[in-house]
Write a structure and sequence with these properties.
Chain B: This is Transketolase. Chain B: It comes from Limimaricola pyoseonensis. Chain A is α/β, with parallel strands linked by helices. Helix content of chain A is about 35%, strand content about 10%. Classes of the chains: A alpha/beta, B alpha/beta. The interface of A and B includes residues 65 and 191 of A.
Chain lengths: ~300, ~325
């Protein structure tokens, strides 16, 4: 399934939707849209082999958690199409990027725009921290660092069954502080899991602020390579570079693309809030109005009329 | 003499898993310690070495489950929930993956001390939604644990005995049921795992002293048949004594207490096990005596319940073990 839009248009659309949502709700995960829009747009609009969605365009309400007493339970993976041997799978490892991921689903016409209005509403499946049952999600990743391991297990299993579909994991750089990430890479390398692919949003930010101020992680490319992965580092806003990175040969090894990004990309006014960018909540109506005017101009749209 | 079976899990797992491509054998650097070294050597295609990296192993197993496999994870029980609890919860329990968690060295069955002894695992597992719990108490149960675990639609925590294991029963585990080892009318004794053999020794000695014991052995701790337990409690005069290779909080003592409280049963309950304490390293027999997990401790607990003294000594209980365990079981066709 291929979208009519260019990937650049999808990325711009993601940022516009996240911007509108954040202004209307007096805050949101704005910097994640700045840094990750090209990566998610590229995955959904170009790179991933996905079938048509199997779930309704307007998300169903929360349908209960998995249990023996809930036989109708299903995950939100159907927004990425069916699970088929020749198709790809995607995990959003940092589930805090959910708002950006939902905006992506809308831009590539897999979810209705109304879906974003359900974000973080009581009784909705469109949860703030993406849950298994949230649109586009297949596993719980809100506890950071578990996504790559799960992807490695799924990818190993699919290779064992002779499936040609790949397993992709969208990651965030903060996850390299978790020991499990390194356990996952060494296991994927040891077992030759080369159908495992990851693209990591390296925006140098985490909840407390700039990563260097919280916990220095050093040269993560060298570390990934030492642990046995193939690793390519690119400008995460340069779609040509990302496309090229995905073609890197990596037989017998997982491929990890480090997408170096800016958390202010296309919204320079956000730099005022540095280093607390993880979730931007406006401190006053005046600030909200100023951000509205500034970002709207940057994204080429009218300011949001949030009073109505 | 009771029959001792050498490494029953090794044979049982291989018989169960070999040739079934959906069953995978996962190990975290304790392959021979979990008796799967022979399986690794003879069935390498079904064996996955995941190293000393339990956090990844749990989530990796969740991914395998998502791909339709049924992984059997092998390591010491304590390493499978303390460090990787978050991964156990998010990657296995929540999504109801068919992962079979084969936890070796339950409670004080290891001289390895605090870091190796899983003394609160049942408490933890009972509180995890979607988790089932099985515990082996003899060689026959070890031999049937793989089929039993694999019959469950969701994750299963198993307490597995290794090495030389006594054969007490001659029927396999039937998930959801409990074994009725004797049908006395004075006191109900509820045990699981290695404490059942202790209770069988105490039981025969106490019966010699004129006390009628009703004895239940639990191989299935979750799900649990509360009504069956209540019927047994209703059949005894004094009350209930539980004995477990586990802390007294959250295990089968708590399970019985909750069942009694929920039903408003007005009988006494004496819970025996590790009493709000860690254990240390030592032999199993030493630890069971030191921490009050053995037949003598059970006799004292029953005396506490009934308010009588039966004049039994350690020698009486040792004698009971040799003469009675096997024949009693056979007589009751268990």
């Amino acid at each position: 399934m291929r979208n009519e839009k260019t990937t650049e248009q999808v990325a711009l659309g993601i940022r516009r939707r996240v911007f509108e949502h954040a202004i209307r709700n007096n805050g949101g995960y704005l910097s994640q849209a700045c840094s990750a829009a090209e990566q998610l747009a590229w995955l959904y609009n170009e790179e991933l082999r996905l079938g048509a969605p199997t779930l309704p365009r307007v998300p169903k309400p929360f349908g209960g958690v998995p249990s023996a007493a809930n036989p109708g339970y299903h995950t939100g993976a159907g927004y990425n199409g069916p699970a088929a041997p020749d198709l790809d799978r995607l995990f959003i490892a940092p589930a805090h990027y959910a708002l950006v991921a939902y905006a992506t689903l809308i831009e590539v016409d897999r979810m209705a725009p109304e879906g974003l209005e359900m974000f973080n509403q009581d009784g909705s499946s469109v949860e703030m921290i993406g849950a298994e049952h949230s649109p586009g999600m297949e596993v719980h990743n809100g506890t950071l660092g578990i996504g790559l391991s799960t992807g490695a297990g799924l990818a190993w299993g699919r290779q064992r069954r002779g499936e040609t579909g790949r397993t992709w994991v969208f990651m965030s750089d903060g996850e390299v502080q978790e020991g499990q990430t390194w356990e996952a890479v060494q296991a994927a390398a040891h077992h030759g899991i080369d159908s495992l692919h990851a693209i990591m949003d390296v925006n140098d930010q985490q909840c407390d602020g700039a990563m260097d101020s919280v916990m220095t992680v050093g040269d993560i490319r060298a570390k990934f390579e030492t642990f046995g992965a193939a690793c390519v580092e690119v400008d995460g806003h340069d779609l040509g570079a990302i496309r090229q990175a995905a073609r890197e040969p990596h037989e017998g090894r997982p491929l990890i693309i480090l997408a170096r990004t800016s958390p202010f990309r296309t919204m320079p006014i956000l730099e005022e809030r540095f280093p607390r960018l993880h979730y931007v909540r406006f401190k006053s109506e005046a600030e909200r109005a100023r951000f509205n005017t500034s970002i709207a101009a940057d994204l080429g749209v009218d300011p949001i009329d949030y009073a109505h | 003499m009771v029959e001792m079976v050498s490494r029953p899990y090794a044979t049982a797992f291989e018989n169960f898993a070999a040739g079934n491509p959906d069953i995978l054998c996962l190990s975290a650097d304790l392959t021979s310690s979990c008796e799967i070294d022979g399986f690794r050597d003879r069935h390498p295609d079904q064996f996955l070495s995941l190293g000393m990296a339990e956090q990844n192993m749990m989530s990796f197993a969740g991914g395998l489950g998502l791909a339709g496999f049924r992984p059997f994870i092998h390591t010491f029980g304590v390493f499978m929930y303390r460090r990787p609890y978050d991964q156990l919860m998010a990657s296995i329990a929540y999504p109801r993956r068919k992962v079979r968690l084969m936890g070796f060295l339950p409670g004080v069955t290891t001289p390895g001390g605090m870091t190796h002894q899983s003394i609160e695992d049942i408490s933890v597992m009972r509180s995890i939604p979607n988790m089932s719990i099985l515990e082996t108490g003899d060689a026959t149960e070890v031999e049937s644990i793989c089929e039993a675990a694999d019959s469950i639609d969701g994750p299963v925590w198993c307490r597995v005995l290794r090495g030389s294991v006594p054969r007490l029963f001659d029927t396999p585990i039937k998930v959801g049921e409990m074994r009725v080892l004797s049908e006395g009318s004075d006191v109900l004794v509820v045990t699981s795992g290695i404490t059942t053999e202790e209770a069988m020794r105490a039981r025969s000695a106490l019966q010699g002293a004129g006390l009628s014991i009703r004895h239940l052995h639990l191989h299935t701790i979750k799900p649990f048949d509360h009504k069956a337990l209540l019927d047994h409690i209703g059949s005894v005069r004094h009350g209930v004594v539980t004995l477990e290779n586990h802390v007294t909080e959250g295990g089968i003592g708590s399970l019985v207490a909750e069942t009694m409280a929920d039903a408003g049963v007005g009988k006494r309950l004496v819970r025996l096990g590790l009493r709000d304490t860690y254990a240390h390293g030592g032999s199993r027999a030493y630890l069971m005596r030191y921490y009050g997990l053995d037949a003598l401790a059970l006799v004292r607990g029953i005396e506490d319940l009934t308010g009588e003294s039966y004049g039994l000594t350690e020698d009486d209980l040792d004698a009971a073990r040799v003469d009675e365990v096997h024949s009693l079981v056979k007589a009751e066709a268990l």
